[in-house]
Amino acid sequence: MSTESEPPKVQEEVDSSSQSISKKAAKKEAAKKAKEERRKEAEAAASAASALSIEEEGPLANNYGDVPLQELQSVNDPQTGKWSEAVSGREWTEVGALNGSLKDQEVLIRGRVHTTRPVGNKLAFVVVRERVSTVQCLATVKPDSVSKEMVRFVRSLSNESIVDVIGVVSVPDVEIKGATQQVEVQIKKLYCVSRAAKTPITIEDASRSEAEIEKASKEGVQLPRVNQDTRLNNRVIDIRTLANQGIFRIQSQVGNIFRQFLLSENFVEIHTPKLIAGSSEGGSAVFRLDYKGQSACLAQSPQLHKQMSICGDFGRVFETGPVFRAEDSYTHRHLCEFTGLDVEMEIKKHYSEVMDIVDCLFVTIFDSLNNVCKKELEAVAKQYPFEPLKYKPKTLRLTFEEGVQMLKDAGVEIDPLGDLNTESERKLGQLVLEK
Amino acid sequence: MSTESEPPKVQEEVDSSSQSISKKAAKKEAAKKAKEERRKEAEAAASAASALSIEEEGPLANNYGDVPLQELQSVNDPQTGKWSEAVSGREWTEVGALNGSLKDQEVLIRGRVHTTRPVGNKLAFVVVRERVSTVQCLATVKPDSVSKEMVRFVRSLSNESIVDVIGVVSVPDVEIKGATQQVEVQIKKLYCVSRAAKTPITIEDASRSEAEIEKASKEGVQLPRVNQDTRLNNRVIDIRTLANQGIFRIQSQVGNIFRQFLLSENFVEIHTPKLIAGSSEGGSAVFRLDYKGQSACLAQSPQLHKQMSICGDFGRVFETGPVFRAEDSYTHRHLCEFTGLDVEMEIKKHYSEVMDIVDCLFVTIFDSLNNVCKKELEAVAKQYPFEPLKYKPKTLRLTFEEGVQMLKDAGVEIDPLGDLNTESERKLGQLVLEK
Fold first, then answer.
1. Domain A242-386 falls in which CATH fold?
2. What is the interface pTM, i.e. ipTM, of the complex?
3. B4 closest CB neighbour out of A235, A275, A346
4. Distance from CA of A28 to the nearest CA of B (A)
């Protein structure tokens, strides 16, 4: 286990295609951005210089600052300082939990600096992000808590730095557009726990939808587009976007609902071997490796062991685990490694018992996701728009003959005894949806 | 998915060591066994012959028989017969659910023939096993339901055959020793859904504890001992033993409790890649393979990707998945492939936050297992005796210095700055237990 730490400081450039576009067109946006960056750099330099030379004196100086490493060390007798004294005896409140019910209360939050925005030299806004939630915090000069120097310190914070903020929750009259939480935090104290180096991609760029880029483009502004290679080369930053936070959390929930449903239906979870002597099933390519002088394969499916479990009287089993398929296939339907959700059950009388379980399983997953992952689904839809899933509480069942007949009626030529190809499957899906 | 089907008919012999012992010593037990087997074979032959030639006629003949394959097929218009008519409109009751509250009710159960025992030619006992539960059923000649021929049919059933039994639940005055359920089923109808071939090992032999074998040995009786090779060669039969059914169900529950606890503590479940470009961490050997012309490794741990998730702002993550370590190690602490339960979390102030979570996690797992897996723990303990786990609601915490001091006080020489070796770790465990 490890403590929270800074991501490796990857020095890769944003991929050239998006940069060249922005270089060509940019104008206003780019100039604005460059100006902002110059400001930040100057402020950072000034802040660093001031930290070394003319540190503020007096009681207000204790309300902000960088937390030195010694103070953060987990030792029995850590060096105390202004941060330890400020957070001592307090619990952190999750940014996502900040709402009107906490009005006028003092809270301690920890998160990343999502953006900062100075308004003159007496006021600075900083949006703090924790996972899928953001909150607007403001530092405004006050004789008893916030000095001019502290506002300058807040303005100098680099994006993605981790900060601890102590402040009072207030509820503004107008809707807050730049953050998920509809409250503000009036900063009393702010400490930087870990100052981030300049990141190779910004969360703002990585969170942009195609629609936004195209809309801006029509208005003559070229916004940076972060391509997949760049994302994968800077994965730890890319997965901080709200859409990715959502995707991983939805995935986690799918696994959870899948398991809870099956356990409630008397299934047993098994973990089958992934290193096996022969290929699991025909029809898909296999990765081979040397297992201490013997030839071994990576399992293409838990099929054999699931069936062994049924013959071994487990009755109903399931597995969630990696599946390996060495195919030279470049369709969107293929991955060399994926996480399989596998189910196997004995039937008492008729295979429709399996259809009943699977039917109910999927409806349960869809229902639960709509309930527990509302926020996450919205976060994903914002960057990658999708239509809400349509499904019936009781799934429509077609026999193969009925499906073939529907395709024939729609003018698709089809072999009534053969498998459906991808195109026919899609067409059939469409026809069923229209029904 | 597949339907319940017979295990492959492995014709391996029970391993020779145990057989040679039993040949030498056996006497009474072996003779009894051989006689029993001869009886079964004779009855099976007689039954097969009668099935072909003089099938019983009249209404009672509909109350038993082998279910022909056509009748079991999942088609829209299956061939009807006496079995389909008998089970039509009925639901199966789990053997484990049979108890006194069902007294005098008619139930339909499905399970394997665990043992049969004839008492004259008008009465036969058959113990039916479903997963970890067994129930004693009896067929006794009655003018309105059970014929002599039916009793003969019940006696002829080979062990491990799958049967459907319709009968009335009764509660005997005396304790039932040969089955888990304290009720009997008075058979009215019995159909054999799938007749098992002779199995290479019997569940009875595979379920025997070392203590039973030794006890019998002292009394001059050599009972067969099923060695590990034989078990692994006949895995689908071996995992039908109550101990193995228990082990797999406990394992399933451990995973479930692990996940439920962590999800409730705001952890996100992740699935990290198992095929990676380099080794995950130093210090353990790695399996290498060819990934489409590039060199790849099997992950020795999800370490890197867990840490990436933390840097990527997931905050708290866990994974349950396979881990591969290619070490040439033959200790009981090493497996080349195992299922890892992995946890990674950010800390706010002190590493004791991790200890708090892990502490509570283990106590929750132990508590829950004692609650929900009572039956399974008993089943395992019967074959492989173990002492009940001792643990405190709040785990004892020792600093490294305190541990070293305890060992020193007990006279163990130890390097106060080095790692503890296996022996010292064991000794320390002992000392803590004694405390």
1. BirA Bifunctional Protein; domain 2 (3.30.930)
2. 0.85
3. A346
4. 31
